[in-house]
Amino acid sequence: MIRIEQTRQGLSALGMGCWGFGGDYWKKQSRDLNRKTLVAALRKGISHFDTAPAYGNGESEQILGQLLHKELLKGSPERRASISLTSKFFPTLPQNVYKGLARSLKRLMTDYLDVYYLHWPNDKCDIQGIMGELERARAEGLIRAVGVSNFTLAQMEKVNRYGRIDFCQTGYSLLWRYPEKEIIPWCMQEGVKVIAYSPLAQGLLKTRNLNKQYRDGTATRKNSPPLLFPAGDPRRQLIFFRDEEGLLDVLNAFEEVISPLFTLQHGSLNWLKGREGIKGVLAGMRNPDQVQTAGEAWINPLPEELVDMLDGISREYWRKLERINPDADNIWAHKR
Ligand SMILES: NC(=O)c1ccc[n+]([C@@H]2O[C@H](COP(=O)([O-])OP(=O)(O)OC[C@H]3O[C@@H](n4cnc5c(N)ncnc54)[C@H](OP(=O)(O)O)[C@@H]3O)[C@@H](O)[C@H]2O)c1
Q1: Which of 175, 160, 64, 177 is nearest to 121 (CA)?
Q2: How confident is the model over 117-153, as pLDDT tens digits?
Q3: pLDDT in tens, 32-51
Q4: What's the whole-model pTM score?
Q5: CA atoms of 329 and 325, how far apart (whole Å)
Q6: Do 156 and 163 form a contact (C-beta atoms < 8 A)?
Q7: Which residue from 27, 52, 7 is spatially nearest to 202, judged by alpha carbons?
């Protein structure tokens, strides 16, 4: 069995994002496929599973809890200790922290969470009161660590005044390099562990042989955007689609470098694994094949020159994207 390396905190460095189990944003998939995907991940040695109540209004947590219980835990504390379960909440009132936590623990069929993240910031909430409740939950053993997600530097500094932040979960990929500027350096300085999400930019960063399709006429620049994601797919709201031409250009450039020997998903995960300050990566694997590809990509390094070339192309693209969207600090440009 190939083991995915573990960080000292027990999170496997390659984690499985379980947003897809919720089926809201992603196309709903069968319970059987979810089970097969989870079993494949466990077999690969993946032991870090990330979810949130927001993913399908609790459905992702529930499915993950039930499947894990059936496939692995079976009430065994030793088996529970061998995996990391992380979930999140939207900060509102301090008295809601325990209520939300109790619901998540119940759905996940567990006594504790390894990391409990503030999913998104809320500048209007009583952050001091919320951090107080989280510290209480930590002292009572209901959570092992506190994390923030999608926070700006100023928001993290504020939280840090009222309690300890252990983890920061942020979008980060060859297409999205926003956290490099302030977030990652600050986390490194403060000893906060950075976990990168959407490493494949939600499925954009995978080999589609676009160049070949252009050459043989299957794809044209006109029909390529739907070829990336079909009409109606919510991922077309991602900020990259504000400049579709630029997106196609950069994906073509990546493919030119990486194909035919390797895949773009391999390049993307390898690039991310080597980035300074990154302690873990959450990939949204949706089927056993994707688990297999991600696991293999994670443990098989690519030639350094290749990763450097991807990095160069990515840097140039990011400079342009930043110019087009100077205020966008998340990949959907959601207002905080
Ligand atoms: N804290 C937050 O606000 C936040 C936000 C986003 C995500 N997350 C976490 O991060 C996890 C991962 O992020 P994500 O799902 O947004 O993005 P992602 O991992 O970048 O993309 C997932 C998509 O990429 C494709 N894919 C995945 N593995 C593949 C492989 N090996 N080969 C080819 N294609 C592959 C699939 O798309 P197709 O089905 O189209 O092939 C899959 O649905 C989530 O599940 C969640 O736990 C957290």
Answers
A1: 160
A2: 999 999 999 999 999 999 999 999 999 999 999 999 9
A3: 999 999 999 999 999 999 99
A4: 0.95
A5: 9
A6: no
A7: 27
Residue 131 · residue 101 · CB < 8 Å: no
Whether 15 lines ligand 1, by a CB cut-off of 6 Å, is: no
List of domains in the chain: 14-202+264-303 (3.20.20.100)
- Cα 201 from Cα 199, distance rounded (Å): 6
Tell me how many degrees the CA angle 159-188-320 measures, rounded to the nearest 5: 95
Contact residues for 49 (Cβ-Cβ < 8 A; gap 6+): 15, 16, 18, 41, 64, 68, 83, 84, 85, 86
Q: Write the residue with the smallest CA distance to atom 5 of ligand 1.
A: 197
Q: Which residue has the tokens 């056993």?
A: 288
Residue 169 in contact with ligand 1 by CB distance below 6 A: yes
Q: How far is the CA of 321 from the centre of ligand 1 (A)?
A: 21
Q: Is 201 in the pocket of ligand 1 (CB under 6 A)?
A: yes
Say how many Å lie between the CA of residue 95 and the centre of ligand 1.
Answer: 32
